[in-house]
Predict the 3D structure of the following.
Amino acid sequence: MSETHAPARGAATLHDVAREAGVSLATASRVLNGSTRKVAESYRERVEAAAETLGYTANLSAQATARGSSAVIALLVADIADPSFGQLAAGVVRGADEAGLTVTVAVTARDPQREVRIVRALRGQRPRGLILAASRTDGPEAARLEAELEAFAGMGGQVVLLDRGDPARRSVGFDNTVGAEALGAELAGIGYRDAVIVGAAEGVRTSDDRIDGFTEGFTRGGGSIREVRRGGVSRDSGYEATRQLLSEGLPSGTLVFGVNDLLAIGVASALRDAGRTVGADIAVAGFDDIPNGRDIGPGLTTVRAPLDELGYRALRAVVEKEWDAAAETPLPLEVIVRGSTPPRT
Amino acid sequence: MSETHAPARGAATLHDVAREAGVSLATASRVLNGSTRKVAESYRERVEAAAETLGYTANLSAQATARGSSAVIALLVADIADPSFGQLAAGVVRGADEAGLTVTVAVTARDPQREVRIVRALRGQRPRGLILAASRTDGPEAARLEAELEAFAGMGGQVVLLDRGDPARRSVGFDNTVGAEALGAELAGIGYRDAVIVGAAEGVRTSDDRIDGFTEGFTRGGGSIREVRRGGVSRDSGYEATRQLLSEGLPSGTLVFGVNDLLAIGVASALRDAGRTVGADIAVAGFDDIPNGRDIGPGLTTVRAPLDELGYRALRAVVEKEWDAAAETPLPLEVIVRGSTPPRT
DNA sequence: TTGTACGCGTTATCAC
DNA sequence: GTGATAACGCGTACAA
């Protein structure tokens, strides 16, 4: 036993491995991490054995400083407790896993200033890429965010926008307008004539698109939008908005479209708590098809958005050298009619 | 214009800032990152100005290699799309934010081997800490996991276990047994006599504790457990288990306890889809109080577990130098009776 | 108080 | 193929 290994404190370093195996640092590095493999089999084996016995794990920070870029990709979301985020994140993590990347999550809490701060801080991580979900695209902070993103891209990071984005940058998403339009048309087709929309404040693109699309499809089908209620997009926002609506009188037979399922579920709960019967008395529809939409009884009519797949694609867009937006097949959107909007004929 | 700044490619380094400000590297380091502040005001200002104009952001990887530890904490969960994870993660992220840490998320998919691999890979990140949620504590991989954790702790990382843990290590959690016992007692108290439990396979500690606790409370209150059904803990597992139960005949008036809300919601949906009426015909109860429990109509009876707070505490346990498990006030658990288990008197 | 110089663990560019 | 050695960007004794 030479006992030259196993430093008392801290992890084994590449140096330790090299010494243990009796080779140079460079050789050890090549067999353990390097890409182009040109090491004699005998050496390779010895190095691998040494690494194993020492329990060596590459220090990613050091690798990152040396390489100039780290093997992490950052995911920026509005609310980590939002179920649709969960779907999305699952896809991102799956892709990251395949690519040997780790994912760090930051949350903006829908605060534009905070968003800017976070992107700035993230730059310090030198992540390989940045996936931005659901950020506003207007307002005073938009320019500052743009600048931060620019800086990030300037140092070699890939920025990927979710939920449609500007063509100048990589962006993956689906066409919210078209999906919502199909939903509106479908619902008008099965007999609904009078609808109220509950959505986010103006300027949140996803919400705006869905409102526009739904309006288009529904009115063309012969229905009319009585009102568009704007506010938050959380479950509680939906609940509160509906209480308001209720207090002002909500005629039987009305259809309420919430721009996302979470919101729509809040709507449905408020309705039920007020003694109304969703599906008979009042109809409710959402967008996304989050898992709990099936469970609220009656099931929530919605547009199925492949969030998991979206996350996966976003990651691929970050990773892939060449990436052609046009080459991507569009993410499929499907209207799913459930008990919350029974045919009204 | 001296034009000595703004390197064409890549971000500004501390070196650039120092030169721009006309001070040494050390001084720049001290004002921008160092802890003990002893820099003349005039220098400080110049450095800060230079950093601002250059858009300097510290390279965290480099800082990490230099310091030997990175400002990230890793969160290991079974399933990122699980709503209860969302609650937990929100708390962790909140705490991390306060401490200036970033959170990286890895998912085990409930695969023990994968879990071991991940911990090993994580070691490469040299995170300051590791928060482990919901891992099994038995099985053949447990020893290997233990060894990895040991190695991680050996290099200075804090390991925090969630959902109760061994006293030798830092662990935060609440008493699942006591909470479930209270629920069982309460339900027996309002008239239920016959219950079926749906839980995880044996060896998942959280599930086992809840099963034991519920059984204890329910039987002591005069009820009896007809059967314990073991399997997965996802929504779909609950759904499937219930279909099975249904096919074997499920008497009216039975109470079904799912060891977590997600599972219980699956149970409720299966019941509803089979034409049974939750709350009248069959009663359902869960554990956790995830947000959608309120929305499934009738609301799901459950035990409110402060998951967000749990995550926050876990992070504090990672960060704090001195941490005394005994000094922590126990996390409150509260039985919440909703429509899914109406009084049966 | 400020600056110099060395170390952190890896990668990459050279010669050999 | 393999091995010195110079970066990488930053923290931090140590000296000034």
